[in-house]
Amino acid sequence: MSYIASTILMVRPASFGFNAETAQNNVFQKKLDGTQKDIQQKAVAEFDKFVAALRKKEIDVLVFDDTSKPVKPDAIFPNNWFCTLNDGTLAVFPMYAANRRLEKNDELLKMLVEKYNVRDVEDWSEYEAEGLYLEGTGSMIIDQEHKIIYACISPRTNKSVLEKFAHAHGYKAMLFFSRDENGTDIYHTNVIMHLGETYAVICLESIPGETERIAVSQLLIATGHEVIPITLKQVHAFAGNMLQVKNAKEEKYTILSKSAYNALTKEQKEILQTHSNLLPMDITTIETIGGGSTRCMMAEVFLDKK
User: Fold this and answer.
1) Omega of the bond prior to 70 within 30 degrees of 0, cis?
2) pLDDT digits 0-9 by tens, 109-119
3) Confidence bin at 17 (pLDDT 50/70/90)
4) Half-sphere exposure (CA, 13 Å, Cβ side) for 38?
5) In angstroms, rounded to a whole number, what is the distance separating the alpha carbons of residues 148 and 39?
6) pLDDT of residue 81
7) pTM as predicted
8) Residues 173 and 151: beta-carbon distance below 8 Å
9) Containing H/E element for 21?
10) 144-147 LR contacts (CB < 8 Å, sep 24+)
11) Nearest to residue 64, comparing CAs of 137, 114, 138?
């Protein structure tokens, strides 16, 4: 059984733009000059180049088109509202921003159920009514092989919901706090941490508690991961927001943005390249305005084809 996805799902945006609702606790979002139409055109161009680059490397990509109504500025980041597990689970999650809840799409879920063997569809959305959130693989870094979920607690990652999800699937929850240089909670774990099959990229300096920092490091090492620390400055260039996938030939690729690639040191790149091929993508518009990077744009499909 493989624990690296060979199929990913991406959503081509219909109305990409700055989301004021999510900006409340995502310090990575920035407004750029230009009309919504200009921004949307740039985002689609970056998206299409991204997909083409993946397919050129023989990575299987499912593209789902977003609808223009209702307007969903963050639809390009599907990994927050659903995920798949290799036990055949398709899970839908409670989302912090009301306008992001509109991204949950029955047609997309139906497509997955038609094409793949889905054992169970779980909908955790009821927690939204209680103001409790868990935003998919933004909130959770899931080690399916070792049955561990790494997560930093934030307004978008509720401890009790996360523990219930982990328990439901027989996973251990490794919870910790992660903060930026201003002491603000990091909103998503996948901003400061990326887990490959044999390595882990993590901003240890963002974990203020020494006990937690050591516990996370030790667990990563104990499960066979080479720890590659990154700085908070590199986090701001999205160096923690990567995803490892494999292609039709079983070759491993780690997908990251150009800004993340440029922020890495020569030594960090060399270490990463002993584990995986690096594949940088130019997504400047998407990254700057959306406050999310390559990992957020890709939802892994761990389900078996029918």
Assistant:
1) yes
2) 999 999 999 99
3) low
4) 5
5) 38
6) 98
7) 0.94
8) yes
9) none
10) 144/3, 144/85, 144/86, 144/302, 145/3, 145/197, 145/223, 146/223, 147/171, 147/172
11) 114
